[in-house]
Amino acid sequence: MSQAPTLAFIGAGNMAQAIIKGLLQQGYDAKQIIATGRTASKLAVLAADTGIGTSMDNQAACQQADIIILAVKPQMMQTTISQLASAIEPQRHLIISLAAGILANTITGWIGSDCATVRCMPNTPALVGMGASGLYANGQVSDRQKAMAEQIMQAVGISIWLPEETLIDAVTAVSGSGPAYYFLMMEAMIAGAEKLGLDQQQAKALVLQTALGAATMAQHSDQSPAQLRVAVTSPKGTTEQALRSFAESDYQATIANAMGAAYQRSQELAKLFT
Ligand SMILES: NC(=O)c1ccc[n+]([C@@H]2O[C@H](COP(=O)([O-])OP(=O)(O)OC[C@H]3O[C@@H](n4cnc5c(N)ncnc54)[C@H](OP(=O)(O)O)[C@@H]3O)[C@@H](O)[C@H]2O)c1
Asked: 158 and 33 in one domain?
């Protein structure tokens, strides 16, 4: 990135560190990044590991930055914003919030000015550079700021822009909670493999590689997942028998219902902070 903006990460936990490390791997200048926290020893380790600046002073960090990334837990957000609000200059700063369930309007309300705000719903694979996040920008965010927000999140995976903030709840139900759906599938397949006589280590190796292989094929193919499924399902073969068994227990409706439940819960959680 040329003429990189200065970034202040408010909260230097798992998600902030994943993004910081992704940015550094992409060649982002460590001098252009500052992260804050409440525990000096944790900040010292982070500074030594990465070469970025660290501080326990949220206001000072914001004053140095062009982009402020709010990366504390949702329940800490209001208190944290109240500590730094007076340092925010609406004409200069872009706010990016990673907090689940807190609306852009709630954030600007706590800040006390209608500043440019991007809401981001990341997911845990961001910790290994394979994240999938949804982004929503309020009306104050310029195209240039949108491009900067996108560059930051692309340091840890892919991101998509959402035209409506309510779609953040859909992203939560798909990619936010999605890793757990796949972990459950892996768990079930490992248990199934053991039942069929494989040992735990063999079962895990085969299941994980199969998940990775299927995802990689789906990503690199022009065909849809449905077409790929049909292509690997020979008439009267073993896969067909397994898929028939899935259909008998209405597998697709089970998945859709689970995602609906996550969506509903995301909407309920959003109401807690409004
Ligand atoms: N992790 C995920 O997979 C994930 C997924 C989607 C969304 N998110 C969102 O990402 C945000 C961060 O989550 P996380 O998992 O990274 O949390 P985390 O690991 O618990 O990190 C939170 C950080 O905030 C710091 N902190 C707390 N109060 C602070 C304050 N007043 N000023 C400065 N720093 C403060 C904590 O510092 P101390 O340790 O010193 O207290 C800690 O480093 C959350 O809002 C969450 O909703 C995370």
From this structure: yes
